[in-house]
Amino acid sequence: MTKVVRTRVEFEGSVSEELALVQGEDAEPWAQGEELVIVGHPQRRVEGIAKVTGRARYTHDLRLPGMLHARMLRSPYPRARVRRVDPSKALALPGVRSVLHRFNAPKAAFRGEETIFREEVRFVGDEVAAVCADSEAIAEEALALISVDYEVLPHVVDLEEAIDEASPRIDEHGNVHDADRHERGDVRKAFKEADAVVEATYRTATQMHNSFETHGAVAVWDGDMLTVHESTQHIFGVRRGLQAALRIPYGRIRVVCDHMGGGFGSKGGVGKYSIVAALFARELGTPVRCVLDRHEENLAAGNRSATLQKVRIAAKGGRINAIAHDSWSNAGQGRWIADPTGPTKSLYDVPNVLTRSYRVLANTGSLAAFRAPGYVEGTFALECAIDELADRIGIDPLALRRLHAASDRDPISGLRYSLKRLVDCYDIGAQEIGWSRRRPKGLRASAPGLRRGLGMASQIWSGGGTPPAYATVHLNPDGTAVVRIGTQDIGTGTRTIVAQICAEALGIAMADVRVEIGDTDSPYAPISAGSLTVASIGPAIRLAAMDARDQLLDVAAGILEVSKAELRVEGGAVVSRGARTPIAKVFEELQNYTVIGKGARLPNSEELVLKTFGAHFAEVEVDPRTGEVVVDRVVAVHDVGRIVNPLTARSQVEGGVIQALGFALSEERVVDRPTGRVMTPGFESYKVPTVKDVPKIVVRFVDAPDTCANNTGTKGLGEPPIIPTAAAVANAVANALGIRVRTLPLTPQRVLDAVEAAPAAKGGEADRRGDRRS
Amino acid sequence: MPRATPVLGPAAVDVTLDVNGHARAIHIRPQRTLLDALREDLGLMGAKKVCDEGTCGACTVLVDGRPVYACMTLAVATAGRAVETVEGLAHDGGLHPVQEAFIAHDAFQCGFCTPGQIMSVVALLRARPDVTADDVKRAVTGNLCRCGAYPNIVAAALAAAKRKK
Amino acid sequence: MKPFAYVRAGSVAEAARLLGKGSAALAGGTDLIGLMKGGLAAPARLVDLTGIDGLRGWTRERGAGLRIGALTPLVELEESEGLARHLPIVREALADAATLQLRVMGTLGGNLLQRNRCWYFRDQAVPCWLKGGTRCFAVDGENAHHAIVGTDGGCNRVSPSDLAPALIAHDARVSLASARAARTIPLAELFTDPALHRREEHTIRPGEIVTQVVIPDSALQRRGTYVKAMDRKAWSFALVSVAAAARVRDGKLRDTRIVLGGVAPVPWRVEAAEREVDGQPYSDAVAARAADVLLADAHPLKDNGYKIPLAKELVRRALARLAAA
Ligand SMILES: Cc1cc2nc3c(=O)[nH]c(=O)nc-3n(C[C@H](O)[C@H](O)[C@H](O)COP(=O)(O)OP(=O)(O)OC[C@H]3O[C@@H](n4cnc5c(N)ncnc54)[C@H](O)[C@@H]3O)c2cc1C
Ligand code: FES
Ligand code: FES
Question: Is the pTM for the entire model greater than 0.95?
């Protein structure tokens, strides 16, 4: 029986109502304390051997017979009209097969536009033409031979310049667009009646994903059937995108992603490179590969928007009484923004809140979701402002947060949370870092002249998962199983978790489960993003495995002549009153029988709000004479429901913390304003953390299953660990220095400039003042 | 009269590389990097091309036992030198201790940097079995990991070192 | 990369002969290959120097100073215990230079001859002054990493090498050989004087090969130290670096050298600061005076003023370390 119901879906901070199909009945959730033998225990990655031997095949590694190579010609100007394209010289180069550009390319809808080669190119790196050739080197050489007549137009690349009325308007509707607004309580009144108000402006830099495997695809046609191998977080999203761009039937498109070298949010759908590969492959009748190089990746494959955020926060009676948060995000050419005010709206129980969020257009590459998009930036501003207020009213910043963290209701909808253990995160983290050592003017440093401080910040994120997601489990007559689901493993360990849940629910060993993912010929699963993978697919896999087990028991009951109720499956055998019959034995006389179990993810409760919570604590040492910030230790505590694989969960948190440290301390896209060129397109100038930048990271979980969330009790863990780190570090730096640097990243330059501007910070204890207003 | 040294190229020339102990003859132009020779001419996809400009370490292979960036090395210049890649580590179906330790300690996520990381650790432990965490960090400073598997990479290297002793 | 011919030279003479017009010498390739990939160099022929006997390793002979072959890989300089005894500053300077892989590949000569890292220079599409254009884009652009002194209104690049300041602090001389002649010049003179407004970074002539670096006996009497500030904990060029060397006796520094990296288009020796400390009983106040005169003539751009306090601090640290030794 299949029913249609409405369900609330939350994806990366925005909530929407969607239709869902309900099939079958849900299982009782695995309860707290329930004895599980595989889930909840550390398990090595099932693809481990493939990855350490170099055998794992990534999209980059595919080489098909007859395969050609495509490369993009990209605009050297931040804004220009493409008046003429002359590819004749390129076409004359031996080995060049074809050139596509705006005057000859077929219409191909892409992100709301009709074509992939626009008349007006809008950032340095925007696609102007594509070449297909026998080798990448020839294609590259041919790019230089395409002559393009550009009419250069006025541009603006910087966020604050784009906001400025005096700058060129690059869009007919202006550069600044309303994106979101939330109001509750009476903010004006609250500020008027406040005991203390802090008002500050925070800035964050553009962060670039820099997934190690760049975006890319290989397209192959077999008659009118298209197969695209793509490094993606969402094979089904790519399939839809190809359908829209190429106007071919959904059923004629297959998308495959086997191993995948990271995405961090940027690989959520089809890219121009995939469309170009498919177009060339169709035209030339042979496979075509189009893979971006590192510099292209950093021009055109997305980024976390730079933000400008103004926060006003008021205290009354020792509590936070009001917050007003205005935020502008540099969306580049993006048509949406990741809203930084999300945490301000929902993290704390504060009665009077006003948030306004704006999308600002600029002549730079579009944003793409980047691990907790918006929340990383917004949490930095919110959590710094709370610390500034706490300093102002002379209360411990953690104590101030505690006053607003205990509520069990979502302040926006008024609905109850399925589970909220934020205060437990505080207790565990405070204990672990030794928060009681914190003093308003910092701690004793390890050497004279250095400054040491403690800081913390909290996180809220969705991660409850959603339908639709489906899985099948094939139980072979030898007792092994194949689980099929159209999800993808982007490095988070999804394969392993799929195997764990299947093995647990079926009652067989993990080694007897083969995981088939990353292929749209499997049942649908959602994007691997938004921390929704495990909580979306886990319940479906469990139901599919239970279905298979149930059918197995039917067979076993008949064969063993025991009533089904007395049978269970355990360790690969059917067990009844002490007798164990291996599954293979059950099927001995039914040799070619295959049990097919299926399962679907059921909707979330309408009455509950599903969130993850957490808190990070940081201890830092700052050298005010060199501007160097050394993060000594980060304690990360998260409340994300049941932990399926403690081994990979810890890795996930460490990875999130490290990426956040890059955002906090060293990562910054620099764009030259006059030319619009990205000055930091490679790893020499764009500084992602090295092994030496990593502090001691302590990972703790409030490992409590959220039994109201879904039948596995899980929630997501992809984004939570990147959210509060930068804020915790910035608060620790402020605690250490006695002055606050409100612009990320906290480079030696920024710290030194701040210290020079506030000589008190250089001097002794006596002349240090904690709270400067901006 | 000193013997004149042959000038190779710019057209393609025959070169024999010693890769994982096997002589491999290829026909390449002098501008072929070792990384492209391994991946395109020899089909060895372990070493990855992530930056192609000597700034990430994903292409790390060993030449005469020491780690180098294959993307910044000309293949012609490695003729007659011993090149080792991740594909050469496992023997008789058994993993190298460093590979095993990487799995046991979950020292990778997406795995794209992993072949390079492993080669750097292998070179370190061959030269000095007795290593500290700082030694390991120094050895893999030139291997970025965007997923941030660093703590586990260090743990895996230390565990492999302990096992070797 | 554009196609090129490759030849492995067997001797200095052969290499010099092969290095005709349009050719380039190839050592470790860590800079040259990057420039070629980036479209900033397109030699028709590469002459590989790494097979030449006798240009690798170091020797110390009394009267002849310390000689280091130009083709010695950086990693050998870093790992040599003997060299660390004679010239400890080299190990210190290499400790945070690039990465192990780059030090395995990179050579002494290549390190001294590497081109600068200005992002306008490295972007092929930007017609900056050094590449023959009319102006330095950093002046009105993004200049947090650029020079604060010695630019003379011209190019605002900074000298990137960690070894150059360290070796100059020990009066290093560099030997060059061509098909016709050989010469030995002070290492400092290998770098083009910014005041001359020449569109090149080095004074090496076409067809010349760097064969060795020589530290005279007298300079080996000095103790040297190297400090470097970076915007990440590793694998970064210096924001500012300081090489300091002196003979230290009875708490006094004599014969002091202070050479900065990362602040000027060339390694930047500051004799005024050296004079402040020379012969004085070392104290914090003396170091502070040296720091104060250090960059008196600096002209910071919009975003690089922080390099002044940073350089002062690093000089204080370097001097304190010398005095404590
Ligand atoms: C990502 C990255 C980070 C780096 N970080 C640092 C750092 O922190 N500190 C630092 O000091 N360096 C750093 N470097 C630079 C590196 O140290 C140099 O690239 C290296 O030392 C150059 O040596 P090479 O032998 O590879 O030179 P090559 O690239 O082979 O040559 C460089 C230049 O010198 C010429 N040349 C080389 N040898 C001779 C010779 N004997 N005679 C005549 N001409 C010659 C070549 O023709 C070429 O023009 C970094 C490099 C990279 C790519
Ligand atoms: S690919 Fe060679 S160092 Fe990045
Ligand atoms: S595991 Fe993904 S980059 Fe290292």
Answer: yes
